[in-house]
Amino acid sequence: MVNIKDLTFAYDGNKKILDDLSFNIEEGVVYSLLGINGSGKTTLLKCLNGDLPSNIDVTSFSAQMLYIHDEMQFYNYLTGEEFLNVILNFKDVKLDQDMYNELLSELLMNEKIKQTISSYSLGMKHKLILIIAFLLKYKYILMDEPFTSLDVLAADTMIEVVKRYAKNNNTVIISTHMIDIAQEISDKILLLSNGKIQEYDNNFKNTKEIKAIILKG
Fold first, then answer.
1. What is the pLDDT of residue 53?
2. Of 32, 42, 104, 197, which sees the most CB atoms within 10 A?
């Protein structure tokens, strides 16, 4: 478990985007991070990953954490498989061939993995990074709006893959504005509003109940 205590962040001394946030990141849990636009969801993920400096020390867990977002850098001239092998070699991790084959099949990447990344859509890039994250066995995975670039079939598949990964004592935090997906994938919901965070068990009966807490703040 990671204990986040009194996390505060403001851009250039302006109004606090995150104001003394305290919450726990538990193992084996999928969190959905919800909030209106501008509430600080991406800022929070960047602070947790250490991409933005804040008042908390992330060194105890940052090495076990991967942040998946739209601005990740790729070697576009490589194929997906070549890029994956570069990362595994750099990390000195042996490829788990069985897991790799299973992920390629589930995420419909068997053919695409042989193509250059320059031909990939954003959704395929997210799939590639997720495969790498699983193969490297990251304990904590942060995902910023991963479902906006996926079709219905790909989204359903990713939901199942993520839920299964979390069951092995891993943690996934997903920032999303897609309430239906949040209800389906989450064990817990983190609501970010006015610089504060509230945690809810995902016992909501429908998306209207989730929408109500977002609008209430």
1. 87
2. 32
pLDDT in tens, 88-140: 999 999 999 999 999 999 999 999 999 999 999 999 999 999 999 999 999 99
Selection from 133, 132, 185 nearest residue 155 by Cα: 185
- CB atoms under 10 Å from CB of 105, counted, come to 11
pLDDT tens for 133-161 read 999 999 999 999 999 889 899 999 999 99
Spell out the domains of the chain, with CATH numbers in brackets. Answer: 2-75+138-216 (3.40.50.300)
Task: Give the C-alpha distances (Å, rounded to integers) separating 61 from 28, 58, 138, 149.
Answer: 15, 6, 10, 29
Residue 28 sits at the vertex; the CA angle it makes with 22 and 31, to the nearest 5 degrees, is: 50
Dist. CA 21–CA 195, nearest whole Å: 8
User: Which stretches of the chain are DSSP H helices?
Assistant: 41-49, 80-91, 97-106, 122-135, 152-166, 179-185, 207-216
d(CA 162, CA 63): 20
Residue 3 has, within 13 A of its CA and on its CB side, a CA count of: 1
